[in-house]
User: What shape does this take?
Amino acid sequence: MEILDLLEIESEVSLPRRYSELSVAEMENRVKEIKTKFGDRLFIPGHHYQKDEVIQFSDARGDSLKLARICSTMADAEYIVFCGVHFMAETADMLTQADKKVILPDLRAGCSMADMADIDQTEAGWAKMQDIWGDTIIPLTYVNSTAAIKGFVGKHGGATVTSSNAKKMLEWAFTQKERILFLPDQHLGRNTSYDLGIPLDQMAIYDPLTKSFDSEGILEHVKVILWKGHCSVHEKFNVKHIDNLRKQDPDFKVLVHPECTFDVVQASDLNGSTSFIINTIKKAPAGSKWAVGTEMNLVNRLAQEHPDKKIISLNPFMCPCLTMNRIDLQHLLWSLEKLEEGEVVNHITVPNEITEYAVLALNRMLERS
Ligand code: 13P
Ligand code: SF4
Assistant: This one.
């Protein structure tokens, strides 16, 4: 979603004033009441980065892979009120039968990384890549991308990946073609490729704004083309944070999400998806100390849920993901009250011509993970 679209949406869907006058208890009671009333007809998936005030009402909590999988098997629900960001709601729409309605409580809940690859840029970049490398490239896209990009990838024989199956999906992709185009997160692409033994000088970055390639090596030897996109939340962690922390207290283990930069991932002790982060901390012994490099809502929740362990954010001045935070109790209640009145607000629908190909890309991933 472009910034202008967001501004337009902002003016269109401002919440009725009465929601700011309700107490938290009143709102929570109403959400519970509506959930009970709808029963199995309503399903609320929630991503780990959602606020506590929202995640407490989720019927399933998970990382992107788990949520995609759950939506693909959802049989009873008529309404899926997605507590996450726009690309997740699009995925839910594409993986469910046509009669199910997916709702995003606040349309401003986009993802800045997903916005870094639009379909026109991708088509233009792909044409350039074909000129240089010919028909030797398979495209992979992180699920943090628009439905149109997933459709592009599906059409060209590729697949989606999440942070929990990226390695497996890159291995598969190399059985299909000689080279990979990885969209839109250069960091997940670089970190995973390096893990698979591909040296940095066999990777190139494609900048969609200048339409140019940047590589430490020669283009002929490139195995992975990384789209120049990133997550503005995870780029806020740097190696200095790790060095300072280790100087202050060497007992801390550093655990980061692979959307962090290459240097940060290399300097950390462990890296993995949000589920990996949660499970690692769950299994850790009491008294262990963890500096976590991911979104703040999740870090704060981990600290609350594990009072026997010391859990801090790797960056002490970290902010939460602003777009994930757009989904708050007020918007959740508003979308549910509208449903109760028989009105579906913020209905997320992906056109059939995109869904047809995007589902190919999603299923290639789901079959292999
Ligand atoms: P996970 O797939 O690890 O849940 O990550 C999703 C995401 O948006 C991370 O920024
Ligand atoms: Fe997008 Fe980053 Fe927020 Fe994840 S944390 S939703 S990648 S902006």
In short: Residues 48, 63-64, 144, 162-163, 231, 259, 273-274 surround 1,3-dihydroxyacetonephosphate (ligand 1) (CB under 6 Å). The first helix runs from residue 3 to 12.
